[in-house]
Amino acid sequence: MKIYTLHKKQQLPISLETAWEFLSNPKNLKVITPDYMSFNIVSTIDRPLYTGQIIQYIVTPLLGIKTKWVSEITHIEEKKYFVDEQMYGPYALWHHKHFVKEIEGGVEMEDIIDYKVPLGILGQIVHPFIVKPKLEEIFNYRQQKLEELFGSYKK
């Protein structure tokens, strides 16, 4: 069983409070997801992020195929980090840690995603050609969109 890791860091010129407020609101995930993925939350989101929260999405990650994705928020330490884990969806495993910390002149945001592709050896064969580049594209888009929303970090 091969588990892959995607690791991204970004610095933004905003306060810790602003970063946390944006990142911990599930509704903002649509804002930082490429339009072609047709991302939609189907759960009712009527309160701030909390441990045990179940969030259901419909997303079109590849080849126009709509996919249901169900994740659970498993850990939260306010203004420090939260973790979402896929309960149902396109991956055999998806464990996404979101960290945020105050730095001089802004915040540093860090995403660490541990994931396993489905379909055994076939999934491992297509991973470097399809899955990994697609995830890189999605998270690069997120970084770009966050810079558009909040500005570029200059130390």
Q: Care to describe what's here?
A:
With 155 residues, this protein is an alpha+beta fold. The protein has one domain: Alpha-D-Glucose-1,6-Bisphosphate, Chain A, domain 4, CATH 3.30.530.20. The protein is built from two helices and seven strands, in the order βαββββββα. The protein has a seven-stranded antiparallel beta sheet with strand order 1-7-6-5-4-3-2, with helices on one face. A hairpin with a 3-residue loop joins strand 4 and strand 5. The longest helix is centred in the last third of the chain and has 31 residues. The N and C termini lie far apart (42 Å). This is Cell division inhibitor. InterPro entries: START-like_dom_sf (IPR023393).
Task: State mean pLDDT (0 to 100 scale).
Answer: 94
How far is the N terminus from the C terminus?
42 Å
Strand content: 35-45%
Model regions low in confidence, pLDDT < 50 over at least 5 residues:
none
Trace the largest sheet across and list its strands: 1-7-6-5-4-3-2
Just name the CATH architecture.
Answer: 2-Layer Sandwich
Give the topology string: H per helix, E per strand.
EHEEEEEEH
Total beta-strand segments:
7
Task: Give the overall shape.
Answer: globular
| Percentage of residues in helical conformation | 25-40%
Instruction: Give me the number of helical elements.
Output: 2
Biggest sheet architecture:
7 strands, antiparallel
Total discrete domains? 1
Provide the CATH topology.
Alpha-D-Glucose-1,6-Bisphosphate, Chain A, domain 4
InterPro entries: START-like_dom_sf
Protein name: Cell division inhibitor
Organism: Polaribacter irgensii 23-P
